[in-house]
């Protein structure tokens, strides 16, 4: 046999050899499962905290203490001299983690905004349809009431009849 056939195959084999009519079995990897929503909530909290005055204040205090410690050399310890390369490395690491987390939070906010926009648009369409229906109903009522007697019309007709009866002296004149 050749070296190629001596290697064990990943496909299931029968007594005659590999079963070519069936797909190969997939190997599963044992990676930790991450809840996307929980991680998204963490990213939103992180991004929200990074945008606060509290974060900026604590970061400023940290930098001032770091620079002071390494310029003065408290107890003779100066672990990051003047160009502060280690501090720069910390900032770069923080930025490399902060940027994707902030983008993830923004994407989640965009998704929420899109859902809210679609909901608002659907509500507005329903309100517009209701308004158009009511407009048609009011217009049909106006058309229907043109032939019907309104309160003002009945009052004016009664006044005309009363005036006519007074002129014929069938009733006593009104004191008005």
TrEMBL record:
Transmembrane segments: 55-76, 82-104
Entry keyword Transmembrane: yes
The keyword Transmembrane appears for this protein: yes
Annotated spans, Disordered: 1-22
Assigned keywords, A-Z: Membrane, Transmembrane, Transmembrane helix
Signal peptide per UniProt: none
InterPro entries: DUF1003
PANTHER family: INTEGRAL MEMBRANE PROTEIN-RELATED (PTHR41386), MEMBRANE PROTEIN (PTHR41386:SF1)
Protein name: DUF1003 domain-containing protein
Organism (species): Metallococcus carri
């Amino acid at each position: 046999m050749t070296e190629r056939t001596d290697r064990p195959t990943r496909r299931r084999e029968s007594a005659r050899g590999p079963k070519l009519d069936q797909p190969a079995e997939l190997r599963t990897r044992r990676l930790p499962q991450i809840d996307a929503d929980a991680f998204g909530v963490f990213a939103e909290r992180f991004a929200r905290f990074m945008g606060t005055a509290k974060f900026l204040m604590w970061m400023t205090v940290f930098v001032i203490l770091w620079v002071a410690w390494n310029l003065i050399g408290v107890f003779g310890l100066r672990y990051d001299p003047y160009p502060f390369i280690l501090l720069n490395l910390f900032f770069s690491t923080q930025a490399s983690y902060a940027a994707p987390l902030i983008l993830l939070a923004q994407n989640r906010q965009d998704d929420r905004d899109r859902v809210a926009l679609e909901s608002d648009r659907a509500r507005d369409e329903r309100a517009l349809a209701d308004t158009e229906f009511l407009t048609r109903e009011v217009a049909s009522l106006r058309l229907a009431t043109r032939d019907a007697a309104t309160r003002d019309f009945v009052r004016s007709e009664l006044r005309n009849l009363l005036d006519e009866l007074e002129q014929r002296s069938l009733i006593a004149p009104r004191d008005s």
